[in-house]
Amino acid sequence: MDIYKNLATDSKSSTTVAPDQAIVHLKLLETLYQLRKAVEQWDGLYGVYNNQRLVQFSDEETDIDHGQQRWAVFVQVAAERFQTWWTRAIIPMYNAWPMSLSQLESTGKNWWTRQVPRQIGKDYLPPLDVLMVWHAYMLNPRTYLEDCMRFGLGSLWTSDMPWGLLNEALTAQYDNKSGMLYGYDPGNHAKANFEKSTGLSWDPLSNGPPYKDLVCPACGTKNPCPWLSIVEVGKGVATIGTRSYSANNLIYPCSKCGYNFTHDKLRLRQFLVDLNDNRTRYIPMPGTLLDLELNIPMDPNDHMILDVLGKKELIYNLLSPLVTQPGVLCEKGEYMQAAKHQVELAFEEFKKDCSKLRRNQVNVKAVKTTIRLVRRVLSCYWTNSSIFGQDLSACVVRQASFIEKMHGLDWLHSPALANTMRRAILRYQRFLDVMGREKHMVVPTLDIDLAWHTHQLSPRRYYVYTIKTNAMFVNHDDKIGETKLSQAFRSTARRYEKKYNEPYSECLCWYCEGVRQSNSSLLTSSRIKKRLEHLTDPLRDYNELPGAHISAHNAISDVGSGKTILRTSHERSLWESYEKAYKQAVKRSNKLRRPPPPRCSNRSLFYGAAAGATIPAFMLMGAANCACDTHGGYGNCVSGACSTLNAAGSCGSGACAGMGGGGFSGCASSFISCGGGVSIGGCAGAGFGGGGGGGCGGGGGGGGCGGGGGGGSC
To answer: Which InterPro entries does the protein's record reference (predicted)?
Structure first.
């Protein structure tokens, strides 16, 4: 039976996703996994050679993994190529035009109903590296919706990922040495169209070392900045030079006038570009189009962000010299802090204006919305200098651990594949039902997360379904503090088991055992007990990696003293629950005359084994954010944004609370820029799975007590 025969029709008949769509998604993920491994193992790529030691100098000298370095550069080049494809191919193809404030006001919440789907044809599919970025972009549904609105690409947003075309383009061939090898070939017409429209090569590695053209805003000179510059510091030893565009500490001088390019200066430059478009062309700023709670298109009259930025011409004129004149410098080189300071001043003027009005003259709800919008707007630029609402290279990196887990599970080659997907989709629908309309934070298991990801790749259907089921457009937040994520997972399991009388997590790692034990009062039904007895069958492999483990690829490590204490306490509580669960399992095994299950002695395997390695700490200029309890950093509330607004009323307890669907943290858990790189496996060795060092980022997904790379066995 051809499991793919209904790809063209199932998208309409399925309430969420169809099994064959999830299967093609697995094929894509396996292809991306093999792409990453090929890049990491390419000796000499970007000038990184295995026989040359690569080091990083900070407080102490540390070694850089050669494969991770190559992948870090590849991902950032891919994000740049995606932006070129988006602007030179997609926008002209759809005859798109940026949305104006007046258009937004006229359509409001009904914007999505006026969009006509238009799917990309096979001859216009992009290369695999660009497809990889597009895939990660769509898995940030709120950002993707808002950006498609801003760029006038509603027809693209309403279209599904072209599963049928991808199924034809994704190839599989068995190799005696390497096993099943997956490739991607949409045909010669697609290659020719891509190269013609973008001016780029189809193969991202065909033209030698890549360069990023930096046009000097002072003199107009085009400067070809290398993505990676290797500097020898001794015999057989090298480091990454600051004249590398992929390095977080970029300092690249203009060859003619000496103007210095830095990433923070480039971020401020993009902020000013968008601010200028807002003041001259009335194009909405990123972060201002969607309702803060429901994540649906918002009427411009529902907020007063234009009043805050009412002095935007003054702001623009004050900040422009910082990015256009070589001799004008910013204190400590923190250019986005300068933007924050100017917005703070504008915000203070806004509050004064509100305080002069009588209460019946002020729309208090609009004022409260504005307070939070200010923060959201600025957050689009803290680690991002692209035209999009967030840094897409960081989005790709945060998907790496999930892709690695899907490879490890190898569902794609299971004889029960179709049934596994049907079961995952059923559990996913229940998962959304458990979330309900109360906006609880819920955390999926790996099988549920696969179905969830697949659903998000059909943006309009996902939008309609979640609004109907959850009374809001559910965002998929891939930057959540690890302790908060774990606590929410425990709560999710409790509600799921209470409602459906089935165990939520069927994994045997110590973390999941601990969660089940903490919810033991619910595990009293005979149905759940029988299922758990099946889990402890002696013929079952205790070190296998089941799909019903927590999906933690979106985890970021909590930093700051308060968060560290909370995390330690939470981990200790889970470990104590595991100890209790293990004693009960041994007692049960003795009663049934079975050998006891193997004991996990490695407490450091928090949430399971590491799912991937870290990206070097100084790589990825748009680093993933870290949840932090320290105020004053990038991304924190603008000064006064959480204070009382005199006559206009105060923020109230909800004014700075978490934004719907797991959005921004409240004021007490503000986000700051780490200035470091994105970690795939964890944060400085402490993230999910205990991944190695290297800045903060999307922590590795969970693994069983012996699964996953680099975690060690129990």
So the answer is: GRDP-like (IPR009836)
